[in-house]
Amino acid sequence: MTAKPIELLVQGATVITMDRERRIFLDGALAVDAGRIVGVGPRGEVAEQFSARRTIDGRDLIVTPGFINGHVHITGDPLTRGFMPDTIDYRDSEAFLHWVLPRYLSHTAQDEHVSAKLAALEMLRCGITCFLEAGTIRHIDEAAAGLTELGIRARIGLWTEGRGAGDDVGSVQASDAAIAAMEAAVTAYPPDENARIAVWPLLVGHNTNSDAVWQAAKAIADARNLGVSAHMSPYLSDTEWYLENTGCRPIEHLARLGVLGDNVTLTHLAHLADVEAELLIQSGVNVVYCPLAALKGAFGVARSGRYPELAAAGINLLLGTDGYDCDIMRLMPMASGTFKDAREDLSVFPAHQMLEMITINGARALGLADEIGSIEPGKRADFVCHDANRPELRPLLNPVNQLVWSADGRGVRSVWVDGECLIDNYRSTRIDEDALFREAQAAGDALVARTGLHLQSPWPIIR
User: Where does the Amidohydrolase-related domain lie (predicted)?
Assistant: First the structure.
């Protein structure tokens, strides 16, 4: 048998495939050529099939599919993260207008470029190879350029609202402008086979989008094989607004508009009535749970959240990091433990289900299930090499349980997208990280100064 020449062979590693059988090879091998996986299985079987230009000794590695972040703000938060006091209540509209919006709206185009690079670096170094952005980018070209520099895969969107203040004419004009901008952005960044960055019609959600904008976003997504995403119901305030202004609950209203479906992803949904949960299940909507945002924001998920029940009913459930910490590995035990405790049931959200949420479930929501999310021949070579020679992973007895309950992103040694090594020995292969950190610090300081906001600290900070 003649060995087939390929670009890369990782051999001797523990390979968690996330394939249909969820096979785990303790002495496995992964073969990559032309950006795609061409072989995976026991080391002896795979190694004899291929002759690689580069071979990596993986005996101290755990290989997983690249992680997929279902919801993250790559602008607005990265350059001002931690500046806002953690006692600010988002439900207070005055506090929201004072502390949140100025941090987003004060970003220049260059700020969003730097912010996107910083977010992409943070995600890659934690093993995230693909993400769905939260729809709060104002300068789409600059943000896309920043992501492209780092090489990460993403679906992003232009900040889209479209509900005008005041009279009906204002509402119509705001909707028309929002739809036109959304269509232009989607046209400029189509999901080309070789392009890692594409634009979707992403909505801010809550009560900020007019019915016309919702319907236009869904129509655009359907026509172009894209997805739609929006925030909804982290607090009861969304429910209260929809009941007062439409006579029904948020998900009921979206169902009446005809904008639900399996290409729609809704984030948070911490407060759902029975009828809303049933509509989500029937329509095949994807749901994103952001555990850190929920706990820090006091959404009440332990009491009101239905994520375990939605998942059990067949909802495609993802995890998202939102705007605080992109280490999605830290969020898996947080997401699981919250509901184990709330339900007093240890069978809720087992470790293997957590790993599904950040791999194959994410790929499905992004319409990329045939391309990423598992390590299988024919799929894109998006994978992560975790350092197994760490205290939390030795002795290595149960790779999935230990990755979920004991490990975090600090153990990510290398990250690959389309067979390109973007993180090698814990550092970016594409940029000067130290230069980016200096640039981000300067941008953050200047941005905060422009907002006119002042740091509030219970302890004295002396310059």
Answer: 62-420
